[in-house]
Amino acid sequence: MAVDATEGAASAPGMPQLDFSTFPNQIFWLVVAIVAIYLILDRVALPRIGAVLAERQGTITNDIAAAEDLKRQATEAETAYNKALADARAEAQSIAAEARSEIMAELDEATARADAEIAAKAAESAAVIDEIRAGALEAVEAVAKDTAQAIVAKLAPGAAADEADIASAVEARVRG
Amino acid sequence: MSEDTATNGAETLAEGGSNHGGDAAAAVGGSSHDIPGVEPSGLQIHPMDQFIPERLFGEGAIAWYTPTNVSLWMLLAVLAVALMMVVGTSGRAIIPSRAQSIAELAYGFVRKMVEDVAGRDALPFFPYIMTLFMFIVMANFLGLIPMSFSTTSHIAVTAVLALAVFLTVTVVGFVKNGTKFLGLFWVASAPLALRPVLAIIELISYFVRPVSHSIRLAGNIMAGHAVIKVFAGFAGVLGVGSVLPIFAITAVFGLEVLVAFIQAYVFTILTCVYLKDALHPSH
Fold first, then answer.
1. Residue B13 neighbours by CB distance under 10 Å
2. Is A78 inside any structural domain?
3. Nearest residue, CB atoms, B160 vs list A27, A44, A59
4. What residue segments make up the domains of chain B, in order of their start?
5. Per the domain annotation, does A124 fall within a domain?
6. pLDDT tens-digit map of B226-269
7. A164 CB within 8 Å of a chain B CB
8. Residue A82 forms part of a structural domain
């Protein structure tokens, strides 16, 4: 639309834009301005800005590298810490196992000793019991013989039975 | 001599205005600007007055070296560029100040444009393209200051810029590619029968480039400024009703701020596109 307007106006000789007498002046000052801007930009501004941008890029790259390095160090430290922790735990476990086995051995030994003592005591006691039991049997025999003799003497006073016969009969019954 | 020139100028102004557009024509139609003895009517709008190059000092014709408002505003553009790109970056800080950020933004914007559009081998032309961009964008924005002079609204200025680009591109094309540069006009991917026709079309389009390139910029800037001036003329005579034209001026001014940047961008990116054609002429 703007171009249309310009073209429409271009046919009119009245536009200041088409006053050719001012063209040399405009073109001269335009060239001056353009050359000045070119020199300002090319000699001063653009190299300076380019250098600043490159420097910033370098700084950023360095900072990122440093950050990566620190991150790596942190990871390493973490790994070392975990390793130390695992080692300590394993050591603690081994110490505990050792102590446990020691205690177990002592315990076993004590148990065995106690068992042996108990067995000895039991055997002793069994012997004593057997003795007592034998003594009791003998006493029972003796009492039975005496009782049998007394009974025989009461029942058949004339037949003074042979002591030996009675004893063997009682013995046979008791052992029977 | 000077009297004649002045009268001529006034005449041409009235005509220029009346030929510009519907509103302007209606507005200027009643103007009795250059007829002595006739009372001037209330509504006098000369939207093209703002584009007249004038001497800064003294009277007389304008020679090629005469300091004019053209030179003033162009040198102001140079100063603005120096302020923005040199003074603003004088800190050379790793963490940039605001001014330095703007300069870096402009640098990155144009550099990326050159790289993306024209390719890495166009980077030697980066200072040249940056110069074009900075001059046009600064001149456009300075032209938006009320009572200023828009140097980029003049076809003489934009035509020189566009012709410089055209010549550069053509010379670079032939220097870098030799006669292979003519392959730009010979569309190898088209059917053989069509190629001569396409070659003529391509050739015409190639030579129309500087015309469209320059008129696009000058036309956009001139039209916007003229429209603002027309509305300003209405605002001068409408009294309370001038709220409407003032609102319109505000709206158009906002649009013109956009246009000032976009036209500089378009001029620059087209330069890059032409440069790409010169460096890589194959389609």
1. 23
2. yes
3. A27
4. 68-279
5. yes
6. 999 999 888 888 888 889 999 999 999 999 999 999 999 999 99
7. no
8. yes
Query: Token pair of A48, please?
Result: 């300076």
Q: How many domains does chain A have?
A: 1
Q: Which of these, B79, A38, A42, lies nearest to B88 by C-alpha position? A: B79
Using the Cβ of A39 and the Cβ atoms of chain B, whether some distance falls under 8 Å is answered with no
Instruction: Flag if B157 and A30 touch (Cβ within 8 Å).
Output: yes
Q: Whose CA is closest to B144, among B261, B272, B13, B17?
A: B261
**A139 domain residue, yes or no:** yes
- Among candidates A3, A26, A29 on the partner chain, residue whose Cβ is nearest the Cβ of B215: A3
Q: Give the number of other Cβ atoms within 10 Å of residue B137's Cβ.
A: 24
Residue tagged 């067995």 (tokens): A119
Residue pointed to by tokens 């005591």 = A121
Report phi then psi at B68, rounded to 5: -125, 180
In the predicted structure, residue B18 carries a pLDDT above the cut 50: no
CA dihedral B249, B254, B260, B266 (to 10 degrees): -120
Residue with tokens 């009795």: B32
The CA distance from A65 to the nearest CA of chain B, in Å, is: 18
Q: How far apart, in whole angstroms, are the C-alpha atoms of residue B23 and residue B245?
A: 13
Give me the count of residues in chain A.
176
Contact B34, B7 (CB under 8 A): yes
Q: Locate B213 and state its tokens.
A: 């390139």
Write out the residue range of the structural domain in which residue A55 sits. 22-175
| Residue B228 touches partner A, C-beta closer than 8 Å | no
> B37: distance to nearest CA of chain A, Å?
23
Structure tokens given for A123: 């055997």
Which of B276, B280, B281 has its CA nearest to residue B125?
Answer: B276
Residue B177 to chain A, least CA–CA distance (Å): 26
Per-residue model confidence as pLDDT tens digits over A108-161: 999 999 999 999 999 999 999 999 999 988 888 888 888 888 888 788 776 666
Per-residue pLDDT, averaged over B161-188, amounts to 91
Q: If you average pLDDT over residues A42-67, what whole number do you get? A: 94
Phi, psi of A156 (to 5 degrees): -130, 85
Least Cα separation, residue A7 to chain B (angstroms)? 8
Contact B256, B146 (CB under 8 A): no
- Burial readout B180-216 (b: 16 or more C-beta within 10 A, e: otherwise): ebeebbbbeeeeeeebeeebeebeeebeebbeebbbb
Out of B108, B134, B157, name the one closest to residue A26 (CB): B157
Q: CA end-to-end span of chain B, whole Å?
A: 56
Q: By the CB < 8 Å criterion, does A6 face chain B?
A: yes
- Residue B64 touches chain A, beta carbons under 8 Å: yes
Q: Do A38 and B153 touch (CB under 8 A)?
A: no
